[in-house]
Amino acid sequence: MTKPGRQEGNYLASIPHGLMFHHFHNDEHVKGQGSISAATLADMIDFVGCKYILSASDWYERAVAGKLDKNDLCITFDDNLKCQYDVAYPVLKSYGIKAFWFVYTSPLEGELERIEIYRHFRCSNFASVNDFYQAFLKAVQTSPYLKRVEKALNNFDPSKYLTEFPFYTKEDKIFRYIRDRILGAEPYQEIMEQMLIDYQVDIGQLKGKLWMNEEQLRQLDSEHNIIGLHSHSHPTYLGRLPATEQEKEYRKNASVLKNVLAKDPVTVSHPCNSYNQDTLSILHKLGVKVGFRANMYGNLSSRYEYPREDHANILKEMGRAT
Ligand SMILES: [Zn+2]
Fold this sequence. Notes:
Radius of gyration: 20 Å
Number of domains: 2
Structural class: alpha/beta
CATH superfamily of the largest domain: Glycoside hydrolase/deacetylase
CATH class of the largest domain: Alpha Beta
Number of strands: 7
Shape: globular
Helix content: 40-55%
CATH architecture of the largest domain: Alpha-Beta Barrel
Oligomer: single chain
CATH topology of the largest domain: TIM Barrel
Largest sheet: 5 strands, parallel
Bound molecules: zinc ion
Distance between the termini: 26 Å
């Protein structure tokens, strides 16, 4: 029976692309900005049409052979999150879909990578993301960076920033602008670490809750999913790093995955969509064959740049809020 939703074929863009997913929630995994439930994932698969979703290995083979059809879709997960394994994987199994899972490997080495710790803090300690933004601005006020932030915000127009992400709110954009452009990595981290202390967050107990472990990755691999590269430590702007640093990130990423899975990874998704020509050369050197961007913009100029549609945009097309 056809479920309600878009008429067959209407969703389909004129180019083959991936559907990009990050966070999921259930009773155990806290609901947060952009997270979806198992039921919503199932609705989305019905909406785009299960029959257009290729298994990861089919997609890979057709991409390598240059034989993807304009209607072909695939499902991709970034960031090796435990919530994907717990919430999304059972849904995929019920549809018989095999997906791409792009893994940054530092958590497998015990690193509590801040990108995820901070998100968890935002979602679990504040009633809404805007409450977090307010607390963050308060923390900026008592930091040494207050003047710098105030001055830069004077000339900032949120409506002209990150226009390629239409689902970001004005508050999202202001926060991201302060974090990425005004503060930069270290001052931002300094402020956030102080907030973790102020809110008495015990980050040690998050280990094992946020990321998948080696055994879960091996299970996905043995059940015909494809595990791919996503850098080792997930830098926000990998493409702005010197080539030697980028190479270190991807070499380490590849070697940890090889240790876990006993095979060389041959796919990649670019963390935060950040890459440059150096990145593509490094990936080529590492034997990578197929890669994904994190949006639908730009022409497909290499096999490492297949577009992906963010799940939030699909929800929007379905007439559903994120
Ligand atoms: Zn990522």
